[in-house]
């Protein structure tokens, strides 16, 4: 199963679309693992954690965001569908899809 998921910040409407072929909870654990301040600068490896670190230092958790599944698509359609949603909701301009992260 391939999933496209939106994330919105609970306090204001700021979003990001992501994709995964892994189970949703495993993908979220990958994001959650970046919510730490360490010598490896793990928070810089996720747009969610980087935004949260910069904008919400006092509440540096994934609890700042609401997560969900937008659609289930074939793995071969993930990039196209994600691109469509990013363009439609302009998260590449106003949302977190504009953040470039290191891997």
Description:
This protein has three helices and four strands; from the N terminus they run ββααββα. The protein is α+β, with helices and mostly antiparallel strands. Strands 1, 2, 3 and 4 form a four-stranded antiparallel β-sheet that branches. The model has no long low-confidence stretch (mean pLDDT 78).
Given as residue ranges, the uncertain stretches (5+ residues, pLDDT < 50) are none
Figure out the total of helices: 3
The general outline is globular
Give helix and strand order, one letter per element, not per position. EEHHEEH
Q: What level of helicity do the residues show?
A: 25-40%
Oligomer: single chain
What proportion of the residues form beta strands (DSSP E)? 15-25%
What is the terminal-to-terminal distance? Answer: 24 Å
The structural class is: alpha+beta
Number of beta-strand segments: 4
Average pLDDT value? 78
Any idea what the radius of gyration is? 13 Å
For the largest beta-sheet, the strand count, sense and barrel status come to: 4 strands, antiparallel
Helix/strand layout:
Layout: E1 2-9, E2 15-20, H1 24-32, H2 47-55, E3 65-67, E4 71-73, H3 78-89
Antiparallel strand pairs: 1-2, 1-3, 1-4
Label this structure with key terms.
single chain; 3 helices; 19% strand; 29% helix; 103 residues; four-stranded antiparallel β-sheet; alpha+beta
Quick recap:
By secondary structure, this protein is α+β, with helices and mostly antiparallel strands. Helix content is about 30%, strand content about 20%.
């Amino acid at each position: 199963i391939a999933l496209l998921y939106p994330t919105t910040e609970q306090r204001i409407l700021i979003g990001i679309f992501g994709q995964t072929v892994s189970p949703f909870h495993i993908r979220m654990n990958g994001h959650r693992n970046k919510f730490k301040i360490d010598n490896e600068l793990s928070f810089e490896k996720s747009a969610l954690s980087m935004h949260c670190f910069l904008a919400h230092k006092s509440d540096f958790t994934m609890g700042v965001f609401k997560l969900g599944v937008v659609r289930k698509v074939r793995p071969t359609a993930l990039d196209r569908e994600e691109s469509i949603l990013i363009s439609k909701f302009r998260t590449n301009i106003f949302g977190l899809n504009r953040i470039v992260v290191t891997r």
